[in-house]
Amino acid sequence: MLDKMIIGRYVPSDSVMHKMDPRAKLLLVFLFVCVVFLANNVVSYSLLAVFTVMLISLSKIPLRYLYNGLKPIFFLIVFTFLLHILFTKEGEVLFKYGWFEIYEGGLMQGLFISLRFTLLILVTSLLTLTTTPISITDGMEELLGPLKKWKMPVHELALMMSIALRFIPTLMEETEKIMKAQTARGVDFSSGPIKDRVKSIVPLLVPLFVSSFKRAEELATAMESRGYRGGEGRTKYRQLSWKTSDSLLMVSLGALAVMLFLLRS
Amino acid sequence: MGKKLVSLENIIFRYEGQSRNALDDVSFDIYQGEWLAIVGHNGSGKSTLAKLLNGLQFAHSGTIMINDQIMTEETVWDVRQKIGMVFQNPDNQFVGTTVQDDVAFGLENAGVSQQVMVERVHGALNKVKMNAFLNQEPHHLSGGQKQRVAIAGVIALQPDIIILDEATSMLDPRGREEVLETVRELKQENEITVISITHDLEEAAKADRMIVMNQGQLYREGPPQDIFELEEELIALGLDIPFSVKLTKELQKNGVRVVNGHLTEEELVKDLCELHSMM
User: Fold this and answer.
1) Phi, psi (5° rounding) for residue A186?
2) Residue A60 predicted with pLDDT over 90
């Protein structure tokens, strides 16, 4: 169970993308999501696609990982494509069979929207594939830093995230243990009607909750005894460094936005 | 014996909603550089004592002096810098996502600068021989390794005292020996005072001094040899005596002339061999 669920699906490597500052990557994804909406014709969409392919090649991520990221939303992509084919009635008729007609505009729109989906998913999964969850947390904390002025508990949120990440494997192990213990007592987790299976989750969740609360309390005590008293006056062990390559990435994204703006019709 | 480092005077403490005092008029001193073992059955107040020493709970009356500083709500953060604590459950005290992050956690809280932090993290991990695991995640480590990382987290802050609050009770024999060996080495090299709260009498036997707690009161205080002489009294308190002491008594009953005071198996074996060669 542990091996199947890899949080963030991080793939270690030492590519350019991996070494990039997490802040740069977070900004890239955020801005890319906005920039994607600028494209509206063949040229601008191909430009976007080229940019994405460039990012992928910089990351040296094996393509099957990207494909795995796309799989869950494959249905959504096909569905929107079909929806456009059926309901957008613009331009010339390309195909006609009885009442069923395919318009040129429908085909193009369908292709564009599916491509937009695909590119968005590719770029966001590129972030989680090349950045460890803890680096993403660090990057978020830094980027959201200015919000502290408005009393946003940025440090606390980041700490919560990192503790949650740290405890995921521990809790998974525990779940597995409880599952075995309850199976030994006759609980059947894997067969029977849905209703029974949902019911069998209860003897799994109750002990898990109880022990999590106990863990939380002990962890809080341990943190306090190690001198934790909030973000005030705290220094950071992990330092982020903004390098030239990060600035270059930002510039290239800017250039992409400008070109898209000029090329769109 | 070194100079007095910690002194407790007439400590009384009661948990909320309980009718009995968890600690009832407890007074004792702790000296610099010693290894003090605190033993007692469950609910005898030994873990409460540890919490009080670290300022996780405050006494209702009585004073705790640490390095000439009285423990109060104001001084507690200074005190925590001087007293590091290792808890029972290896998993529930591991805060960082990797070994080095966890060791750095205490330093981050203390506001140590990044360069110094890197140095101290590496230094501390070297001392507990965990330097090969810098980027390892906690679920890939054994219980003993996690406890050694916890110790590294404590010594990175350069404390005067380490409290082991049943730190070895959840470990297998090998992990236990690993952890105790690490603490012994640290105590030797850095003259750290160790307070070990434990169930393990073999471990307590190796301490410089022992304190036996019973029903929230200090029952007996002294070197392990003297404490284990109490025998029947200890058993009546729900404690046990080490195997070697038991064996010595049985041998003496059966007419073998072994001398008293063997606290470890090795000593007893050595003495028996000598005895055998004389026969």
Assistant:
1) 100, 5
2) no
